[in-house]
Design goal:
By secondary structure, this protein is an alpha/beta fold. It has ten helices and 13 strands. Helix 2 runs parallel beside helix 3.
Length: 303
């Protein structure tokens, strides 16, 4: 099931314009006027280099899936007509997240400066030439048109992100399937980081193992903070296969210097509030003027 997109989605269009800076290079000969073309009768094979990294393999899977839906025909495994060829190569002008799109005879090439750039290039192909829209979470928030042909001009198109940091934050557990759909949406729309905050299982208010995994909230007393085990089980595989980057923000200071381990022996490592040290501090709560506290935090990060 797909939902038809609104006539205008100014916020999403503005976001995509902010994320990507294009460079177009026109073709130099008469053959450039003839676009690259795939059709229902001749769908393209999607090809990868011999042993591509996981994000490039995933980009190929996504292209095969969406192109089959657009053309209403299965995508062949072997080249017998037009092809889409995925690759990645270091390029100072692209960085690891930029990409270039170009037609080369019967082949259409998507080359990223890195693996994530190749995935971004695959989604740009689907958006720009396939007519797809990834306005909201899949499947209901996407528009995948039905077409008899997909055409792309011969001009070389190079795109690089305008913003170096683009992320959504994950703090609380939710339906894992919904969380994975959010991660899917971020990659399709050019986000490069997953910002997250973790808590130690043994520090949660309800240490029963059944409470550490996701269960729907049944009341305000339920502790639904993300633990390492939940994150690695439910979200990390989806993040890794897309090549997204991870960032633990400043709210993770307590993860690296947890009070349940250090409070009894080192209360001086925690903030002095109202003349008292607090064993249950909030957010920016470490005594960063204490060199021993800072040294232990750094050591824990390095481990």
């Amino acid at each position: 099931m797909t939902v038809q997109p609104r006539a205008r989605r100014p916020a999403l269009v503005a976001l995509l314009c902010a994320l990507l800076a294009p460079t177009c290079v026109p073709g130099n000969d008469a053959a450039a006027a003839e676009p690259w073309r795939a059709s229902t009768q001749s769908p393209p094979a999607v090809l990868c280099p011999g042993d591509p990294p996981a994000p490039v393999r995933f980009a190929a899977q996504e292209l095969r899936s969406y192109i089959a839906r657009i053309l209403g025909a299965p995508v062949p495994e072997q080249a017998a007509g037009p092809t889409i060829q995925l690759d990645m190569a270091p390029d100072a002008g692209l960085g690891d997240e930029g990409f270039e799109l170009r037609a080369d005879g019967a082949a259409f090439r998507i080359r990223g400066g890195g693996a994530l750039g190749t995935l971004f290039g695959a989604y740009e192909f689907l958006r720009r030439f396939g007519g797809c829209r990834f306005s909201d979470l899949a499947p209901d928030g996407e528009h995948v048109p039905r077409r008899s042909t997909i055409e792309a001009p011969r001009e070389l198109l190079r795109l690089t992100p305008r913003l170096w940091y683009r992320a959504l934050q994950f703090i609380y557990t939710e339906d894992p399937a919904l969380a994975r759909r959010r991660i899917d949406w971020t990659a399709k729309n050019g986000f490069n980081f997953v910002l997250y905050r973790l808590f130690h299982e043994e520090a949660l208010a309800e240490p029963d193992p059944a409470e550490l995994a996701f269960t729907p909230a049944v009341g305000p007393g339920r502790d639904r903070r993300i633990t390492q085990a939940w994150f690695e089980r439910e979200l990390l595989p989806e993040i890794r296969k897309r090549g997204l980057k991870l960032d633990m923000n400043l709210h993770n200071l307590l993860y690296w210097l947890p009070p349940h381990r250090y409070w009894e022996t080192h209360p001086e490592w925690y903030a002095l509030t109202g003349g008292k040290r607090n064993p249950n501090p909030k957010q920016l709560c470490l005594c960063t003027s204490n060199t021993a506290a800072v040294a232990e935090l750094v050591a824990n990060v390095r481990r």
